[in-house]
Amino acid sequence: MADIKPTFSWLKKRPLCLLGFGFGSGLAPVAPGTFGTLPALPMAFVLHLIGVDGWWLAALCALLFVWGIRICNHTERALGIQDYGGIVWDEIVAMLLILAFVPFYWGWWLAAFVLFRLLDALKPWPIKWFDARVHGGFGIMLDDLIAALFALLILNIAAWLI
């Protein structure tokens, strides 16, 4: 299959790809991962307001992770490009997981966002190791899950020190 330059019109015809591209946020011409992480913030806010937070949100993230393997596999195949930067479902799920365990306060959410984006972009060990060796939908989802777990560890250490 030939490589495809996705557009919002292309995504609207492919619902799984629309999800893979974070409802279109992954189409951002620069920093698609950063823009693709943004939908997690209002999603987590609404979920928090209706009582889905903490371990309930983490359980939802587990389901979204499993579903994300299929979404990312499908989107990657539809594009004909491995681990395309605009596939951001993984960023959304990872950010939701982080927000499940940080205080419901804008400062913590901002710190979580910045730290996660930094870890996801820089890919320190072992994130980079997994990113290079595990491919397909599972690989796309896995490196962001590991970045989220690292972010949670760092944020919990920061909370303990404060």
UniProtKB/TrEMBL annotation:
Keywords in alphabetical order: Cell inner membrane, Cell membrane, Hydrolase, Lipid degradation, Lipid metabolism, Magnesium, Membrane, Metal-binding, Phospholipid degradation, Phospholipid metabolism, Transmembrane, Transmembrane helix
Pathway(s) of this molecule: Phospholipid metabolism; phosphatidylglycerol biosynthesis; phosphatidylglycerol from CDP-diacylglycerol: step 2/2
Catalyzed chemical reaction(s): a 1,2-diacyl-sn-glycero-3-phospho-(1'-sn-glycero-3'-phosphate) + H2O = a 1,2-diacyl-sn-glycero-3-phospho-(1'-sn-glycerol) + phosphate
One Pfam family named in its UniProt record: PgpA
TM segment ranges: 56-72, 92-116, 136-161
Subcellular location: Cell inner membrane
Bilayer topology term: Multi-pass membrane protein
Keyword Cell inner membrane: yes
Enzyme class: hydrolase
Domain YutG/PgpA positions: 20-158
Cofactors demanded by this protein: Mg(2+)
Enzyme Commission number(s) of this protein: 3.1.3.27
Keyword Oxidoreductase: no
Protein purpose: Lipid phosphatase which dephosphorylates phosphatidylglycerophosphate (PGP) to phosphatidylglycerol (PG).
PANTHER family hit by this protein: PHOSPHATIDYLGLYCEROPHOSPHATASE A
Record-given protein name: Phosphatidylglycerophosphatase A
